[in-house]
Amino acid sequence: MLAALALALLPAAAPGAGCPADLRAGVAGGAEADRARLLELAGQAPLRPWLFQRPSGEAPPPGCGPAPLAAGGGASLEPVQPESFSTLHTGWSDDRNDGALFGGRGLSTQLLAGLRLRWGALSAQVAPLAAWQQNRAWNVPPSLAPGLSPFANPFNVGVIDLPLRMGPTDFWTLDAGRSWVRLDAFGAAAGLSTENLWWGPGLRNALLMSATAAGFPHLFAGTGRPVDVWIGKLEAQLVWGRLAESRWFDANPANDHRLFEALTLGFEPAFAPGLFLGLARVFVFPDDRVRARHWLDPLLQPVFKGMLTSAGSDGSSSDNQLTSLMARWAFPAAGLEIHGEWARDDHAWGITDLLMEPGHSQAWLLGLQKLFPAGERLWRLHAELAHTFEMSPDNPTRGTPVFYTHGAEVHGYTHRGQMLGAGIGPQADAQFLAVDRIEGAGRLGVFAERLVRNERWFYENVAATNPKRHDLQMTFGARGLAALGPLDVEWELALAHRYKPNFGPPATGLEGLLRVRWVPGPGGP
Questions:
Q1: CA 173 → CA 110, 128, 179, 501, distances in Å?
Q2: What gap in Å lies between CA 491 and CA 437, rounded to an integer?
Q3: What whole-number distance in Å separates Cα of residue 145 and Cα of residue 160?
Q4: What is the value of pTM for the model shown?
Q5: Fewest CB within 10 A of the end CB: N or C in the chain?
């Protein structure tokens, strides 16, 4: 790991050299997408929305990508770029944007490889992964709730399947990884997939769909690319998936799976070049409460609770609905983009309720990146704020739910014990700032992050007796991305101090990340 990190510090490739990494094999919201967005912001590529990322819908530029292993009869078979990915956390678990891998304390590492088939309008990819997680012990208070695993989350008791440690020992994960089969025809696309998705304009966080959990098995249908509707370009997709429980939540086999449904809409108005708007509407149902009529809820369920025939007098229902509005506005002439996302985890009773309390059960994200030319190089300023914490107001008629949790859907917004939404999790507040030097296909920079966890728990259970015991983490580090011959190397190394981890004694630790991917040159290796 250290040898590869040293190689990554070598100068980046010259501008325009080689081919970009294949987005079909990459992580949604990862380094490949970041590199592509920078090219657009520098005026070297056409602008794209980047609000709803699905790698299987991407294609490499002409002349790039691996050479086919076999071709004939209109079909071709090619390798998926092999990849190794490792994280190091010496102080505590920090599971963010690492997919099926669990970023527990210690070393976690995975390998991914596979094959891709293209035959006319049909395409398929099989790219499984294997991961080993050291999962060392750290200061995690045991859950004492009846019926729950002692490893269940102690700060969101019984309302989210989000263990801070995945059991008592190291473990292996075998996963379908970035696998999919899809049909593209007449501008539409449909398929079956286990790939990670990314919904939202953020570079570090996304409120409703990030790459923190493993990709879940799902069906999808919608546009294959934005469609010109005269006043702008529109993209839409429906998703139906199956979420699973982790091994470390409860012992009830009847609630191990849930139905996930979503509608996503993206729009690029013709009158505002560079502006991209998006809407995501998500429903999560416990399996034992799903009825045939629920399968079209993203299209047919009313927006307001007061119109629901299934809701109780207080507006309660068995499904958890989350809604997100997002926007990205890019100005290539100025090398600037600004973006934001706003979400609610409890839809309003009616229009009056929405107008009176628009911030009820909300989360939000704001960010920007700005490029500064410096000869043949560019400097980037990247800043992002993410907030998933709302205090419960003194309101006798309505409590404020913890974002990502629901009274009837007790597993929360998770899959196999990892967050579907922002990796910072519920009850969190984060600020991130980075400066990167960009040259050719590489970058080298420094960053700082402030992250506070479990804030609702703090104010309700700790603040009265210990008002200065926030679970605060400060992180300072360096990061880079380099093209080294046929390899793409991404790395991070940081020093982090957590003042009151899980409201216990302070701790300091190293945080590391290393991703190495084989990237062939034009036409092959």
A1: 9, 11, 16, 27
A2: 14
A3: 13
A4: 0.92
A5: C
